[in-house]
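User: I'm writing a tutorial on reading structure tokens. Could you give me a worked example: one chain, its sequence, then its tokens, then a sentence or two explaining what the tokens reveal?
Assistant: Sure. Here is the example chain.
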Amino acid sequence: MGKVKDIKVESLEHAAGMLKAMAHPMRIAILNFLEDGTRMTVTEIHERLKIEQSTTSHHLGILKDKGVLSSKREGKNTFYFLKNDNLSKIMECINKCTP
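And here are its predicted structure tokens:
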């Protein structure tokens, strides 16, 4: 039997917060768009989702607040991207586990 790692409670709480933020159909769609290092603006995302820009901004804000996404301003545009490339593995798992 393998050795169980000691995991700090704070790390578990952070991970749970990230997963809760990701657990929404629109947010999963956003994360799928941003897999593999893709960077997109709010406008690009809301056009692909066919939802209001304000709603898209709300979802992006939640994902950014919980440490799932990062953003970078370039000129007039703000680009959103996965904060950690390993999050793509979670999205890959979700996509493989759903019909």
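What the tokens reveal: Strands lie at 40-41, 69-74, 77-82. The domain at 9-97 is CATH 1.10.10.10 (Arc Repressor Mutant, subunit A).
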